[in-house]
Amino acid sequence: MAKMEIAPLRPWDDFFPGAERFAKPDISDLVKWNNRVVSNLLYYQTNYLAVAIVVFLIVGFLNPLGMILGGAVVTLVFVGSVWGAENKVMIKNFKKKNPTLFVLAVMGASYFLMSLFGGVMVFIFGITFPLLLVFVHASMRLRNMKNKLENKIEGVGLKKSPMGIILEALGQQEENFNKIQDFLESKLKE
Q1: Which of 34, 42, 63, 99 fits a 20 to 30 Å CA distance from 135?
Q2: How much is the pTM?
């Protein structure tokens, strides 16, 4: 098993270079779009964490109690969903068959619980807004060769990162692992 490594903070001109490195995703090809998002999440994970922390701190400064409550609820729902997916067959099968729907269900459950506590606006701006920013960037940012190489290394299992572990727990990398494994097996047979 590979040891976990924190991805480096990518330079600003690589993270947000200009309009020529961004393109609207092809929504008719969901597999390709999902691969782009997963690749960018893995490659720019430290940059995304920095952006999320900045937004989180701004909202947390404006409403600290709501932010602590929101963070606790989202963390508990996430940990509970991962535990359920590992220990309950029905949830495990649902996650395997519908990984994107599983992630949406986790977010929906978090939203529902926050509405019970009256912290929906804190949830939307402090937790969901940074996730939306990350998702939009990961969807629009075109991959480069360094991005693809880093993702292949992680996909093969030569290294692990925090985002890779989170994506694996949510079932978002299984397709990539299978494709890489098939590719490597075909090359070995040649």
Answers
A1: 63
A2: 0.63
Determine the residue type at 164.
G
Three-class DSSP category at 22: strand
Write out the H or E segment, with its range, that includes residue 156. helix 145-156
Question: Which pair of tokens denotes residue 170?
Answer: 């949510």
The total number of structural domains in the chain stands at: 1
Domain-embedded: residue 88: yes
**Do the Cβ atoms of 34 and 172 come closer than 8 Å?**
yes
* 12 φ/ψ angles, rounded to the nearest 5 degrees: -60, -40
Could you report the per-residue pLDDT of 14-35, keeping only the tens digit for each? 777 776 788 888 878 877 887 7
Helix 174-189 crosses helix 30-43 at what angle (to 10 degrees)? 100
Residue 17 lies in a domain: no
User: Is 57 part of any domain?
Assistant: yes
